Amino acid sequence: TKSLRETLQEVIPAKQEQLKKLKTEHAQAVVGEVENIIGGMRGLKAMLWDASVLDPLEGIRFHGLSIPDCQKVLPAAPGGKEIIPESMLWLLLTGQVPTPEQTRELSRELAEKGELPKFIEELVDSFPQTLHPMTQLGMAVAALNHDSSFQAAYEKGMKKSEYWTHTLEDCINLIARLPALAARIYRNVYKPGNPLPAINKDLDLVGNYSNLLGYGDNHSLTEYLRLYIALHGDHEGGNASAHTAHLVGSTLSDPYLSYSAALFALAGPLHGLANQEVLRWQLAMQKELGDNVTPEQIKDYLWKTLKSGQVVPGYGHGVLRNPDPRFIALQQFCDGKPELKSSPIIELVNKTFQVAPDVLKEHGKTKNPYPNVDATSGCVLYHYGLTEFKYYTVIFGVSRGNVDYPDVILSAHIYFDCSLGSFDPAGVGTRYVVAIDVFDIPLNDVVLISALGMPLERPKSLSLDAIEKLVKKD
Ligand code: NMX
Ligand code: MLT
């Protein structure tokens, strides 16, 4: 059985070769035009991203596999049925489906490396309980770079060709420590004084996380968390948190710092924080309308939200133009469990889904009137009794750390001197050709962005294969 490192050792040279060829043979090839600099860069092809592609109608595919495909082929935890982040991580990094043995070996390695350094425990314990859990997570992750293998090797003058091995080591150590870190934050903020169990070396990553959170006996919730965390892992390269990590990683900041930066992008209400906002909004609706709400009442409530100038949380997307298949997968999980299907909060989510798209279409602003993953993800946690909704984005963050960021950071480090796109900041609003050989995407002036209320940045990424296909047409 090959380990993750051995598998990557085989996969990476081929990717490097593919990139080199692309650069040498097609450096001047035009891959698109910049049309929308003041529109949050929607559709701008400006990043290399190999692991996943987001189709507006079909949704996400991970190395070509849809969510139902992944549910068929990716190994689950022993005694479980749902996909787990370890098998998703393997697929995203290598493009290959791991065997159950390879998945178990990775779970074991993560469990063995899962303890937190003492100074991190002390740091987290010193945070005020009132500090938002996402702020705590981001700060503690940044501090974990005290032990960065990448940083230490860089100081000693490592060669570029060695970057990825140290990056991988940092990523594995970081992922391994996330359950203990995220659970400690939960314990300190919501259950102070409760003891934290030791990491069980025979459990998978989420099995341990659930246990540390105090829900280890709830098999159904643990399975939900496995699915949730595996599914949230990657959503191509342009989403706000992934491209933050990509940008920071490209400076050769180590993985801890890159992931920490990404977490702070995820903490915004238009991005990952939407899962807490959805629950807040649905509970307010429930409080105002009571039980047995009718579609007509929900419709009026939606209009009230829209007319007060707020967005309907959990609806709309920068790329998707159909219901998010991650939302569908979580709904299907609930459909298979009678107690979830009849849960008042899940029923309300379903009833809202029946009405909201037509209201949003009539409202006429959003390009996508359908639910995204956040429309249901937090509400299911609420049903299970995990009701502390300011914590929900931490779980989203654990997921992105598990799967997405290693890919971001590895790409950034492997392909560090790769050049993919440029535009002239003076040319706002005009059309610029994006050639493959220039590498200079200027940083926007953040003050200006907030002063003008410019939209969320969300460019489009392309895989190596897709770029190759595109430029070969020239
Ligand atoms: N409710 C009300 N108005 C909306 C909504 C919504 N759910 N979605 C978009 N709009 C408005 C948007 O504010 C914009 O208005 P204006 O012209 O006044 O600036 C207009 O519709 C056009 O926006 P779009 O091009 O459709 O959306 P965009 O790509 O700019 O933004 C989101 C995407 C996700 C930021 C946006 O749909 C939104 O704010 N949704 C609610 C928050 C949410 O659920 N975020 C979670 C996204 C998924 N995630 O996990 O990160
Ligand atoms: C994500 O999972 O990152 C969100 O759906 C937002 C996005 O893809 O832009």
UniProtKB/TrEMBL annotation:
It is found in: Mitochondrion. Its main location: mitochondrion. InterPro entries: Citrate_synth-like_lrg_a-sub, Citrate_synth-like_sm_a-sub, Citrate_synthase, Citrate_synthase_AS, Citrate_synthase_sf. PROSITE patterns: CITRATE_SYNTHASE. SUPFAM superfamilies: Citrate synthase. Coiled coil: none annotated. Gene3D superfamilies: Citrate Synthase, domain 1 (1.10.580.10), Cytochrome P450-Terp, domain 2 (1.10.230.10). Belongs to the citrate synthase family. This is Citrate synthase.
